[in-house]
Amino acid sequence: MTASSRLDLVDALRGFAIVSIMLLHNIEHFDLYFTPPGQPAWLLAVNKGIWDTLFALFGGKSYALFALLFGLTFHLQFDARARRGEDFRPRFAWRMLWLLAFGLVNSMFFEGDILSIYAVLGLALIPVARLSTRTVFIIACLLTLQPFAWFDVFTALGQPAPLAKLPDPASWAYFGRAEQYLKHGSLLDVWHGNLTNGKTGVVLWSWENGRILQIPALFMLGMLAGRHNLFAVNEANARIWRRVLCGALLAFLPLYFAVTHLDAWVASELVRRPLEAIVKPLANLCVMLMLATGFALLYRRAAGARILGMLRPLGRMSLTSYLVQSLAGSVLYYGFGLGLYAVTGSAHALAIGVLLAILQGAFSAWWLRRHRQGPLETVWHRLTWIGSAPAAAATNANG
Question: Which of 2, 204, 290, 399: CA 20 to 30 A from 186?
């Protein structure tokens, strides 16, 4: 299978992740949670159904898929340079510095930005890039199992249960303060608040929910998938995808049962919180694997490739698409802009998200008929390869 066909599937998967992220961000009002008053009971029920469904499908899964593909892209670029007798890792560190810059710009508009976190945690790929597949897989598994959370569990088991309810997680105070400037602040207030208060809250929340360890684990798993060409569209990989799909489903069922029964099983909140930080990311990982392998199995069918292939332009322009959706979301929902947070429930916000996804997809397709890469992808690409002629595979691998 050609590298082009492999990248077609990867681009389509990345486009799928971008669209699902956009839909979630819209129903969240880009982290400005608010339920408009005075809605009829039927609309409240519809909104709840949409919220629950989208978060069951994509909450904690879309970012995980994005992280998996990030690791794959690293492998493609590392391998392209290795074939030329060069070490990509110093250039990758430089590349992550520029991704951090993009992420900080994005954070000005949306505190939940993931790019800046990826830029920092992506450096974990540098020391493992030349390790054996077995070693990297073991490291990824250990990170996925959340060793620090297990330490908290065992520490809590040796302590008496607190008489009063534990204080809220530390990140909640930061998000509570963010609500005020997102609703009522000027554009400058939002920029300042997101880069200080908001960024601190997001990092704390990521730690509390197990993402700080799971993200580099997903990077490593994506790198290993690239090593073994697991995104090539062929019959051998289709058999692997089916096995992964079935295994992920079988693993998800007991994890989901555990997630939904932790409150009943574990009376001590001191124990329950770190257990949730262990079990929930594992359950989300299973759903992400089901989404990815199900998508890949559909893609290898002619009709599936035609329909799902429409997501490829969005995937090829994922950096541009991600930043543009943050800019658009802040203008649409925050107080300094149109303030739609006050009048849109999940149903209306979902409709806005679908419209934005269609517009972004159409723009991406139009742009790529005229240019090799998206506008921000081109900038990132040129900044990455200052002073060096990039390998062709690096160019094709989304930057």
Answer: 204
Structural domain boundaries in the chain:
3-396
Q: How far apart are CA 370 and CA 93, in angstroms?
A: 30
Give, in order, the Cα–Cα distances in Å from 399 to each of 70, 140, 325, 360. Answer: 11, 25, 19, 19
Is residue 333 within 8 Å of residue 341, measured between CB atoms? yes
- In order of 86, 274, 360, the CA distances from 219 in angstroms are 21, 23, 26
pTM, two decimal places: 0.92
DSSP letter for each residue of 260-285: HHHHHH---HHHHHHHHHHHHHHHHH
Q: How far apart (Å, rounded) are the C-alpha atoms in residues 380 and 102? A: 9
| 159 burial level (CB within 10 Å; 0-12, 13-18, 19+) | exposed
- CA 107 to CA 191: how far, in whole Å? 8
- Residue whose structure tokens are 């806005």: 352
Query: Which tens digits make up the pLDDT trace of 198-254?
Result: 999 999 999 999 999 999 999 999 999 999 999 999 999 999 999 999 999 999 999
Closest C-alpha to 281, from 250, 258, 264, 265: 258
Sort 123 into a burial class: Cβ within 10 Å, 0-12 / 13-18 / 19+.
Answer: middle
**Nearest partner of 63 among 261, 194, 209, judged by Cα:** 209
